[in-house]
UniProtKB/TrEMBL annotation:
Name recorded for this polypeptide: tRNA (carboxymethyluridine(34)-5-O)-methyltransferase
Chain ranges of the Fe2OG dioxygenase domain: 220-325
Gene: LOC108738031
InterPro entries: AlkB-like, AlkB-like_sf, AlkB_tRNA_MeTrf/Diox, ALKBH8_RRM, Methyltransf_11, Nucleotide-bd_a/b_plait_sf, Oxoglu/Fe-dep_dioxygenase_dom, RBD_domain_sf
GO molecular function: metal ion binding; S-adenosylmethionine-dependent methyltransferase activity; tRNA (5-carboxymethyluridine(34)-5-O)-methyltransferase activity; tRNA binding
EC category name: transferase
Example of a GO biological process term: tRNA methylation
Domain RRM stretches: 51-121
Function: Catalyzes the methylation of 5-carboxymethyl uridine to 5-methylcarboxymethyl uridine at the wobble position of the anticodon loop in tRNA via its methyltransferase domain. Catalyzes the last step in the formation of 5-methylcarboxymethyl uridine at the wobble position of the anticodon loop in target tRNA. Has a preference for tRNA(Arg) and tRNA(Glu), and does not bind tRNA(Lys).
Organism this protein belongs to: Agrilus planipennis (Emerald ash borer)
Gene3D superfamilies per the UniProt record, alphabetical: 3.30.70.330, Alpha-ketoglutarate-dependent dioxygenase AlkB-like, Vaccinia Virus protein VP39
Main location: cytoplasm
């Protein structure tokens, strides 16, 4: 009797045995994803096994909860992973954090508890990959610190009274001088200059700049955008439209320091601290080839070799000075140059009238033809999509718009799922499995307004060939949702390398695995009608264009039972519009919905929206 009592008392606090089982499962996943060795003995390093960037857990939240138990040496968030690491200065603190947080603190996705494990070490390779993008600014970016004095800063701040200003942007307050920057066309209208020019109080900046940086060639700006960011607000990654503004661009920062992220097509990522009272010169590569953006959060954490530095944000006001461009941009950074793309990719503008034809020939008919083969190769549901579906309460109605072979149709527990697709062959696959499915197009969902608790649109919207149609598809998804309903959208990313890591789409490349430099890329194009061409993409390589045809090879005899025309080896070309970073977010920002989560997963850009 005494013995039994002892055993009960020795059981670790807070954890019942079913959770222990769960914990072992999570530890196993952590090791598999990162190579870190789990241990039952306390160390300075803690792995969060079941939540990471992919689940919407941010460095900020990890810091907020773990720093209560002592000084943190390092937080390691891993792009594309559902786990992360925290290291403390000493074991006492990490043990305290472990005991208070493990299985108890609900910061995992959908407010579930996090499960922790001590790890022997954080693998060196992970740390290095994470540190790589922090230190140096990209080419062409110069930060001049303490460019103005405290009293000048106060004078600049006094130029705008943001409390009185109305604004159509939800995330921050904006005011324009000289010309208005129109966010719907991403450009300025040269024929409509504003009455209010750049305040003359700004003139001191140009005199000072000539002294501080005499080798810089510039024309005095004629356009000014003033942004006011409260802590927690940010701006999606973007490139200032090439054809709208000259090079360089200047940013004066007032009120607070902030971390700005610069990213290019090669997966290079620089997180830079832009100090209060600093003056930034953005020119050349940093102006043309890099996107820049500010992550919405209340504090910035900078990780350097020296350790962790935390900056709490205050209200920041930025003055962005630009010279409006008259004519085309002639830069050499073609992938981000609207002037170049407009003249060289005729399809860019000409798709309008051809949209339905492109989609009929290169989406709907193709799926009809490859249905069986497609279905055979699309078994494995993506874990984060399944988690989203499982987050709905018993009795919820969830609509899978573009359900394909129905691989997500039985993922929910005690919820009612309806699927929608344009392919009769794929719908037949669903019907064989007794799923509830409808024939229909994502632009005209055959359901009433405000009926669904949730919706998913997985790998669908990238098949729509104009921006207007992609926009309508999101509007249609929100239309069928009840207020408070949530939708998950996945679209294929142009960036198949994210934070220096290749997507599984690239990793599956057998031919090019060894010599990346010599990617066997074709320059083939398909002429749609006179003057409108779509480039044909080489599978398993990085995307060179946003509007592409992606080949699907159907091997001999693989499609015989579904379609008589496919009993020989045949290549089908599927149309895709691959999304650039920030593009989906920007599109979603125009609706009356709340962006709950935005992330990169399996080579896709993904968002979760909540209808207001
Ligand atoms: Zn350009």
């Amino acid at each position: 009797m005494e013995l039994a009592e002892n055993i009960i008392q020795k059981r670790p606090e807070g954890l019942s045995s079913p959770s222990k089982k769960k914990q072992r499962k999570y530890q196993h996943t952590l090791t598999k994803q990162t190579g870190a060795k789990c241990t039952i003995f306390p160390t300075k390093h803690i792995g969060i096994c079941n939540s990471g960037l992919v689940n919407g857990l941010s460095e900020e939240v990890v810091y907020e909860h773990f720093s209560k138990y002592g000084k943190i040496e390092q937080i390691l968030m891993l792009p594309g992973k559902s786990c992360c690491f925290v290291s403390f200065d000493d074991i006492k603190c990490s043990t305290k954090a472990f005991n208070n947080i493990n299985g108890v603190l609900n910061i995992a996705q959908y407010l579930k508890p996090v499960f922790l494990s001590f790890v022997e070490n954080i693998p060196e390779s992970l740390i290095e990959a994470n540190l790589k993008h922090d230190s140096d600014p990209p080419n062409g970016l110069i930060i001049l610190e303490n460019f103005i004095t405290d009293s000048e800063e106060r004078a600049f701040l006094a130029l705008n009274d943001f409390n009185r200003l109305g604004s159509s942007l939800k995330h921050r307050q904006v005011k324009h001088y000289g010309y208005e920057f129109k966010y719907d066309i991403n450009n300025v209208d040269l024929n409509c200059p504003l009455e209010e020019k750049i305040p003359k109080e700004c003139d001191i900046l140009w005199e000072r700049l000539r002294i501080a940086y005499p080798q810089l060639i510039f024309v005095e700006p004629d356009q000014l955008t003033v942004n006011c960011y409260k802590p927690g607000q940010g701006i999606p990654s973007h490139v200032d439209t090439h054809s709208a503004f000259e090079d360089p661009i200047f940013i004066l920062s007032l009120g607070s320091a902030i971390v700005m992220d610069f990213k290019n097509d090669n997966g290079d990522h620089h997180s830079l601290l832009i100090p209060q009272k600093s003056f930034v010169i953005m020119s050349g590569e940093s102006r043309y080839a890099y996107t820049h953006g500010i992550t919405p959060r209340k504090l910035d954490i900078l990780q350097t070799k020296a350790g962790l530095t935390v900056f709490h944000r205050a209200i920041r006001v930025s003055f962005t000075f630009r010279k409006v461009r008259n004519g085309k941009c002639c830069c050499k950074f073609h992938s981000k140059c609207d002037s170049y793309l407009r003249t060289h990719e005729k399809s860019y503008t000409a798709f309008g009238q051809l949209a339905e034809r492109v989609e009929e020939t290169h989406v709907h008919k193709v799926y009809e033809n490859i249905a069986q083969h497609f279905s055979e190769t699309r078994h494995k549901p993506w874990p984060n999509v399944v988690d989203f579906i499982k987050s709905f309460e018993t009795g919820s109605l969830l609509v899978d718009v573009g359900c394909g072979n129905g691989k997500y149709m039985n993922c929910g527990q005690n919820i009612f799922q309806i699927g929608l697709d344009t392919s009769i062959s794929l719908l037949n696959v669903c019907r064989e499995k007794q799923y509830q499915v409808l024939l229909g197009n994502c632009l005209r969902i055959p359901l009433l307004d405000n009926v669904a608790d949730g919706a998913i649109s997985i790998a669908v919207i990238h098949h729509l060939s104009t921006e207007e149609r992609r926009f309508s598809a999101i509007r249609e998804l929100l239309r069928i949702l009840k207020a408070g309903g949530r939708v998950l959208v996945y679209v294929w990313a142009k960036e198949q390398k994210h934070r220096n890591e290749k997507s599984s789409y690239l990793k599956q490349d057998r031919k090019n695995r060894r010599c990346e430099e010599n990617e066997a890329v074709s320059n083939e194009k398909l002429t749609l009608v006179d003057g409108v061409e779509i480039p044909i993409h080489t599978n398993r390589t990085q995307f060179k264009h946003q509007d592409v045809l992606v080949p699907w090879k159907l091997k001999k005899n693989s499609g015989k039972s579904l379609n008589t025309g496919t009993d020989e080896s045949q290549t089908f070309l599927r149309y895709y519009h691959v999304f650039k970073e920030g593009e989906l977010e920007n599109m979603c920002a125009q609706f009356n919905s709340k962006l709950l989560h935005s992330y990169y997963d399996q080579g896709n850009w993904c968002v979760i929206l909540e209808k207001k």
